[in-house]
Each structure stands twice: as C-alpha cells, then as structure tokens.
Write a structure and sequence with these properties.
The protein is mainly α. The chain is built from six helices and two strands; from the N terminus they run ααααββαα. The protein has a two-stranded antiparallel ribbon.
C-alpha cells in the first residue's frame, strides 16, 4: 500500500515537464523503496535514496511553480516541507505493513532512515550543484550526454556503497 501511494504521488509530480533531475530514474527509485525494505535493505540505505527522491520531486515542483508564475518564496519553500512531510508519513504510518516503525534502529544516535534521508538529500543537492558548475564552466554544455542524470545518481550510488561496505 505504501509503495502504491508513493508511486502514485511520484507519477503525479512527474506528469509535468521535468526541469530538475531525471524523471524516469526518480520515479523508479520511488517505486522501489518499499520493495527494498521488504527485501531487508538497511533503513539508512533506503533513506539515502528516499532523500534524493524527495529533493528531486521538490525541485521539479518548484520549477513547475516558477514556470507557471508562482514566485512566492514561502510557497516554494512550503513545497519542500510538504514532500518531506509526505515521506515522514509514509515512513511512520504502518499502512499495509505488519510492524510499526517506532522500533526503528539508530546509527550514530539518529534514526537510520532519517539519517539516510538527510545525507541523501545533501549528496543529491551537492551533485546537482556540481553538475551546474561544470556546465557553466564548459560554455553551457555537459561533458557527456545525460551527465545531469549520471552525476546525482552516481553520487548516491557511491554513498550507498560507502555505507554498505564500511558503515553498516
């Protein structure tokens, strides 16, 4: 049920024109989050990808809002709050899941999913900014096709491997 709800929300947002990160990749990550939990993937790794997904969906919506004349910074900031709030609800609510999430494990004294979401969001943001700087320094062109997709997803893959191999 959570997977269906999460995928539905992602598809609604992805139906517009995407200006942030790769829409196909983002929706695929969103659809696979609950499946990863069912397969026993650590919450910190699931959180990394959820954080990247939420940042991407928020950036899409913010771009869509700007394209349609909504320039109020409070509304654009509220967009980010709403998406991360939806993620929190999906994580906390036991919809369709036999166990409650209140017995979550911690890493470094922080809930693993929350920690992963924060780190994933920061990594995704920094990778996107890195891509923008590369593009600006290269005359408005990427180094290679689909670099806008490869940079953020590659950064999340690297951080996922670091957590998987060395931390958890």
């Amino acid at each position: 049920m959570k997977k269906l709800l999460f995928g539905f929300i992602a598809m609604i947002v992805a139906s517009g024109v995407a200006h942030a990160f790769c829409p196909v990749c983002t929706v695929a990550v969103g659809a696979g989050l609950e499946g990863a939990r069912i397969l026993g993937v650590s919450d910190v790794i699931t959180g990394l990808w959820a954080g990247g997904l939420m940042l991407s969906l928020s950036a899409w919506t913010a771009g869509y809002m700007r394209d349609h004349g909504i320039t109020n910074r409070l509304l654009i900031a509220l967009n980010y709050v709403v998406y991360y709030g939806i993620l929190a609800l999906i994580y906390v609510l036991p919809v369709g899941h036999p166990t409650l999430r209140f017995d979550a494990t911690t890493l470094w004294g922080v809930d693993q999913f929350l920690l992963g979401t924060i780190i994933g969001s920061v990594v995704f943001f920094l990778a996107g900014k890195w891509y923008e700087r590369i593009k600006a320094n290269n005359g408005g062109h990427a180094w290679f096709p689909f670099q806008k997709v490869v940079w953020p997803l590659g950064a999340l893959i690297i951080v996922t491997l670091i957590f998987w191999l060395f931390i958890i």
